[in-house]
Design a protein that fits this description.
The protein has about 220 residues and is α+β, with helices and mostly antiparallel strands. It has 2 domains: about 5-155, no CATH class; about 160-215. Helix content is about 55%, strand content about 15%. The chain has 8 helices and 5 strands; from the N terminus they run ααββαααααβαββ. It has helices at about 1-10, 10-15, 30-55, 65-80, 85-100, 110-125, 135-155, 180-190, and strands at about 20, 25, 160-165, 195-200, 205-215. A 3-stranded antiparallel beta sheet has the order 3-5-4, with helices on one face. A two-stranded antiparallel sheet has the order 1-2. A hairpin with a 4-residue loop joins strand 4 (about 195-200) and strand 5. The N and C termini lie far apart (about 70 Å).
Length: about 220
């Protein structure tokens, strides 16, 4: 029965003839395009997150989130691209994820930048129409990867991180004892401190709340 059906109608007619509740079971051309774009997008996300972000950052807690958000955004954009508000839909996603904050912790600036890149790449790969060839799409993705690699490796941009410290030697919290304070905090933490900020001084408890800043790529003695 199926063979007779396939022999009697052309491929598009066969696709249209098999429906479930008025919806086609499969559209071969659209399914192939989805699969190909999904492979390209997922591979690019893995390169960006694994080789660009994870290799150059000590924080690995965003690894899972970047991959999942990128894939979900791609699928949302691709499957809803038939809506006549593609640009508004994309900008809405940027707005939503641009102000995204996890309840447990605020997203640092660099992680927020990578989140923007992940969302942007997924939107580009999902919403580029048929006027954009696959060679142009691949070239765009390669340009993004090369740009990230150049910024991370060649320019050797310093990545600054911070750590909170409750400091009990309140007598060293003095303008004239700046160098002594820095040396003591370096000796205690093993961190090559680039700068620090005194957030709060509690003279009743003889402690100070200090934020230490250091370069991620600079090796520390012990943390």
């Amino acid at each position: 029965m199926i063979q007779q059906l396939l022999a009697g109608v052309s491929a598009p007619e066969w696709e249209d003839s098999i429906r479930l509740l008025g919806i086609k079971l499969i559209n071969v051309s659209d399914f192939t395009e989805l699969l190909l774009r999904l492979i390209i997008n997922t591979a690019l996300l893995f390169i960006i997150v694994h080789f660009m972000y994870a290799k150059n950052s000590r924080r690995k807690d965003f690894y899972f989130s970047f991959i999942v958000i990128g894939v979900i955004v791609f699928l949302l954009c691709f499957l809803l691209s038939s809506v006549k508000l593609e640009l508004g839909f994309a900008l809405g996603l940027f707005a939503i994820f641009g102000i995204l904050r996890y309840r447990t912790d605020a997203i640092p600036i660099k992680e927020m930048t990578y989140l923007f890149i992940v969302i942007g790449v997924s939107v580009i790969n999902a919403l580029s129409n048929k006027k954009v060839s696959y060679s142009e799409l691949v070239l765009t993705n390669l340009a993004i990867v090369y740009g990230l690699w150049f910024l991370e490796k060649r320019l050797a941009i310093k990545q600054e991180a911070s750590v909170q410290l409750i400091y009990e030697h309140i007598d060293k919290i003095h303008r004239l004892k700046h160098d002594e304070l820095v040396e003591d905090m370096k000796a205690r933490t093993g961190i090559e401190i680039t700068r620090f900020e005194i957030n709060k001084i509690d003279f009743l408890r003889d402690v100070a709340d200090i934020t230490l800043y250091y370069n991620v790529n600079t090796p520390s003695k012990s943390i």
